[in-house]
Amino acid sequence: MSKKSPPSHLGEVETIRNGSSDPERNEDTHRGFKPRHSQMIAIGGAIRTLLFLGTVQVLCISGPLFLLISYGVLSIFIYCIVTGIAEIATYLPVPGGTMAYYGHKYVSRSMGFAMGYLYWYSLGILIPYEFVASTLLINYWGTAVSGAVWITIIYVIIVIVNLFPVRVFGECEFWSADMKVLLILGLIFLSVVLFFGGGPDKDALYFRYWKDPGPVNTYIVEGDAGRLVALLQSFVLASFAFVLAPEQLIVTAGEIQSPHYNLPERLADTFGAWSFFLCPPSSESV
């Protein structure tokens, strides 16, 4: 059965520039992103080092129950946000259509200015943090190589990939995201096996750690106040897994083919994948 193709008029992108009310065809980009590229860029952006390290931090500080609650509630919030900005991006899929651009266009220049610098600062902090976190994961296995070497290698690879045309960049992102998906699927499968005692020692874990030390922990202070602080801290740490990930699908609107048709389709698939990959990390806490 042949795959349904989008109507021809949905491949046309109109934009309004310089305050003019006359729409004109946007010829600034070649739209080299295929739908699968955009979808895997968004999914791969959520499956990153921050997800693995953040899950461990939330589990240690707040316990498995708060881990489930924080990731579940944040997923609902993210769905509301992504649905809204995806609707705007589908209506106006222009090059450079970032959150700052839409804030400038639909709210005010001040909001666009503030959001632009906020994203600039966030990316400036997040990327070095990812570099350092990656070296921590690599050095977990006791390699004798300095962390600076791994940071340099990762940095060079990122720069080289970004020098290629958008189609090549999309393919690199697609296959790297595929490897991330296989990795987290393997971890979820391993968690299920260990849960039922499939490990070398045949020791079934079941819900052992929900009983000892318990489903929730205290943080900083003891008692109910400590549990409240642990819950709030779990939301702070869990939010790192979602930082800038939802927006990545929207940013690709300026390069994706037939954005009016493909963006809504990719949004539904992507959020389903987020829910599957971001909430089950708590299953590893059992």
From TrEMBL:
Amino acid permease/ SLC12A domain ranges (all copies) = 37-264
**Pfam families per the record?**
AA_permease (PF00324)
Q: Does the keyword Transmembrane apply?
A: yes
- GO annotations of cellular component type: membrane
Q: Mind telling me which InterPro entries this protein's record contains?
A: AA-permease/SLC12A_dom (IPR004841), Amino_acid_permease_CS (IPR004840), APC_YAT (IPR050524)
Is tRNA-binding among this UniProt entry's keywords?
no
Q: Which keywords fit this entry according to its UniProt record?
A: Amino-acid transport, Membrane, Transmembrane, Transmembrane helix, Transport
Looking up PROSITE patterns in the UniProt record yields: AMINO_ACID_PERMEASE_1
Annotated membrane-spanning segments are 65-92, 118-141, 147-169, 181-199, 225-245
User: What protein name does the entry list?
Assistant: Amino acid transporter AAT family
